[in-house]
Amino acid sequence: MRAFARTDSSVFGRWWWTVDHWTLWAVAALIGFGAVMTLAASPAVADHLGLNPFYFAHRQFIILPAAAAVIVAISLMPPEWVRRLAVVLLAVALIGVVATLFGGTQIKGARRWIGAGGFSVQPSEFVKPCFIVVSAWLLSRRKMAGQSQLSVTSLGLFAVVILLLVMQPDMGMVAVISTVWLGQMFMAGLPLRFMAILAALAAAGMVAAYLLFPHVASRVDRFLDPDVGDHYQVTTSLEAFENGGLFGRGPGEGTVKQVLPDAHADFVLAVAGEEMGLLACLAIVALYGFIVLRGFVRMLQENDFFILLAASGLLAQFGLQALINMGSTLDLLPTKGMTLPFISYGGSSVIALAIGMGMLLSLSRRRTAVGGLR
After folding, report:
1. CA separation for the pair 147, 156 (Å, rounded)
2. Is it the case that residue 136 has pLDDT exceeding 50?
3. What is the C-alpha end-to-end distance of the chain, expressed in Å?
4. Which of 1, 127, 166, 281 is at a distance of 20 to 30 A from 88, taking alpha carbons?
């Protein structure tokens, strides 16, 4: 049944007939999976910490509806409002990142969180989608002016963001933002000789991170050599997938959540694999793949260069985050504290992803050649 008639000219009516319904429902399915997996994985973790068994579930059940509201609210905006919102939120997020360096909570050797109203907020999570949109705007302005060389403003902003993230440190986020930004530079028409220089600098940065940060070296060494270091979480995760088989042990019947410290967060896919089986995990992978591919297909019909750069960057960031989390869980990539979008527990991550998805849905709404909605 249609929610609105085609003749409905209200804000929500126009939104309903121009937003991408398939992507909207795919995101809703991921949020639903996230609610189920929070109920399945978090009670055991809460119990080990001496908390109410549903401590994490209660908090996540506040965050998930808020995230859905954020997605709808931002997707109602026209592209120029999305750009302005990104500029404002990026400025606030960068101030928050600076604040973490001086008064943030140190967890596992990194200062990425600050306390706010009983919640811990990770400002760097909000940098990702906002930086991508602002960078797209800067690059599109230069392209529209007939210039295809490196944007000094975009490069300067990128340098500031990377410097702050390295100081925390958060090398996984550095890798994601750098990859997306390089992709945007390539799409903007940066000559290949400059791309080669930037790629070489990125490679040098990876080597420097390995040499300068012991936790990075430890994770890479453990990934490359099974005989080095502690492989408990990854080994336990792989055992969970093996125990789950094709159809899983059944909801609530898994045991991996009892022994994995991050079962509700970074390794939530292992809980899904054990309790729901391979088919459920493949369904989750298919949802991520569908959202990314669907978005890129829609961008093939886009003529606005800002929208093309921004939406492509948001899609790449979303897909990379999912890929890194799943790759780490399956021992295909070095372990990295990166959440599985909309499924892992984590307020900052979920709301930041909601902002990015809301921006994507706004930018991908059907429009006429002059920018009006069809």
Report:
1. 17
2. yes
3. 21
4. 166
